[in-house]
Design a protein that fits this description.
Elements: E1 3-13, E2 18-27, E3 30-35, E4 46-49, E5 54-57, E6 59-64, H1 77-86, E7 89-94, H2 105-122, E8 129-134, H3 148-152, E9 158-160, H4 168-178, E10 185-187, H5 192-195, E11 200-201, H6 204-209, E12 213-214, H7 217-233, E13 237-239, H8 245-256, E14 261-266, H9 267-271, H10 293-305, E15 310-312, H11 320-323, H12 340-351, H13 356-363, H14 365-370, E16 385-396, E17 415-425
Parallel strand pairs: 1-4, 1-5, 6-7, 7-8, 8-9, 9-10, 10-13, 11-12, 13-14, 14-15
Antiparallel strand pairs: 1-2, 2-3, 5-16, 16-17
Helix pairs in contact: 4-7, 7-8, 8-10
Length: 428
């Protein structure tokens, strides 16, 4: 029997809406007891002084990219698990944008077989569960419907291409067909024709920096159309990568109207805005692009008031060579699994005065609700799916400390405050 006693840890439980300092006893992957003080525990229990540390339900990432299969030089499933665990995530849902795409039951089986192999090689349960979205369309190219019924019978969390689907007739048919399959559907409102060859949000900054701009309506025009489609058909949809103040307004209005949607934004859109691109760091070339200051403030407020249900990481690894080009020519995306929690904690909790519960909820139990999963409860008798976090521990973002295979982050070679101490995946 293995047991750990976490003494005087600050426990955040979004389900019970509690924030308190307690002792927590874990035995064989299960929460045995929670009390103000625990003095009765098994011999050989590892006792940890957790004063100043944060304990909460394991973080859950709604969507991120795996390099494997097809782009193993960027990220393997093994390195993805390591990066996720280092960042406090006990579940990561990968998008189907692999090569081949996850658009067939055999592709889903391969992912599960590969994670099982990693577990056998480690001779212990993985700290992070890797789940996957299945593609809505063949090869996730938005042209032809995938075999959704066959995919729905496999171990997927739901359907998402992870790319825009511009054909609204196809979107309508996808929503009609998927309605009876009882699986989450995630869509990204983005008009590629309106976005054109843009590299950042259109506005004063794009003019000043000399970079082609992407208009706000590249997001809001398809979003408005999509909301009307959802309202008519009634299929619940998760809206990915919301990045504009106007997009927030449309979603807020849709929720008031009772349209069945949830929504998320990416963590970097809460931390930065388009002024940061003054550095021309290719790691700030994101899709969707960073918004202006008004967009950033609207997104922060929307997460706080529940208009945006969750914060997603959208971890997108690229090699050094991929990103060592001019800003506008670089592939979009940045890594984030290891950095999101400490940077968000510093920016939102420490600096902006957010409740720690609000931040933790948006990264853990709310993503589970978007996936239609039962939110993790921190209570005796429940599996220990937990993250232990030291909000004051400094560390350096470099090759030695990062677990991801890729280094494409604007925080590379910089010091960050806040580090995950341990995660428990809920298995003995």
């Amino acid at each position: 029997m293995t047991s750990q006693l976490l003494q005087q840890v600050r426990l955040l439980d979004p389900v019970s809406n509690s924030d308190r300092v307690v002792d927590v006893l874990l035995e064989n992957g299960v929460i045995h007891s929670i009390a103000q003080s625990i003095s009765d525990y098994p011999p050989n229990t590892a006792v940890l002084d957790c004063r100043g540390l944060i304990l909460g339900p394991g973080l859950v990432d709604l969507y991120s990219h795996s390099g494997e299969p097809g782009f193993e030089e960027r990220e393997t499933l093994e390195s993805l698990v390591q990066a996720a665990a280092a960042g406090g995530f006990t579940q990561v849902v990968v998008l189907p944008t692999t090569a081949p795409a996850i658009d067939h039951p055999a592709s889903v089986s391969w992912v599960h077989q590969r994670t099982a192999e990693l577990q056998r090689a480690a001779n212990s349960p993985l700290p992070t569960q890797i789940s996957c979205w299945a593609a809505l369309t063949l090869d996730a190219k938005g042209q032809q419907m995938a075999e959704l019924a066959e995919l729905a019978s496999t171990e997927i969390v739901g359907f998402a291409d992870g790319r825009p689907i511009s054909n609204f007739l196809l979107v309508k048919r996808l929503l009609e067909y998927s309605k009876s399959l009882n699986k989450p559907v995630a869509l990204w409102p983005n008009d590629l024709n309106l976005a054109g060859s843009g590299a950042m949000r259109e506005g004063l900054e794009s003019l000043h920096f000399g970079l082609p701009g992407i208009p706000v309506m590249a997001e809001t025009a398809p979003l408005a159309g999509l909301l009307e489609c959802i309202a008519e058909i009634g299929t619940p949809v998760h809206l990915m990568r919301v990045s504009t103040a106007r997009g927030v307004e449309l979603i807020r209005d849709a929720k008031r109207r009772g349209i069945p949607v949830t929504a998320s934004t990416s963590w970097m859109h809460l931390l930065l805005n388009s002024t940061a691109i003054a550095t021309y760091d290719p790691n700030l070339h994101l899709e969707p692009p960073l918004g202006n200051q008004v967009d950033q403030e609207a997104l922060i407020q929307a997460v706080q008031d529940g208009t945006l249900d969750a914060i997603a990481i959208d971890h997108t690894p690229h090699t050094y060579e991929d990103k060592t080009v001019a800003f506008a020519e670089s592939p979009t995306g940045a890594i984030g699994l290891e950095l999101a929690l400490p940077l968000l904690w510093q920016a939102l909790v420490v600096t902006s005065g957010w409740s720690p519960l609000d931040l933790w909820r948006s990264l853990s139990t709310n993503p589970q609700k978007c996936l239609r999963q039962a939110p993790t409860t921190v209570a005796p008798g429940q599996p220990a799916r937990l993250t232990l976090f030291d909000p004051q521990k400094p560390w350096f973002v470099d090759d030695q400390n990062l677990r991801s295979r890729s280094r494409n982050t604007p925080w590379i070679e910089k010091e960050v405050t806040g580090r995950v101490v341990q995660v428990w995946g809920g298995d003995s």
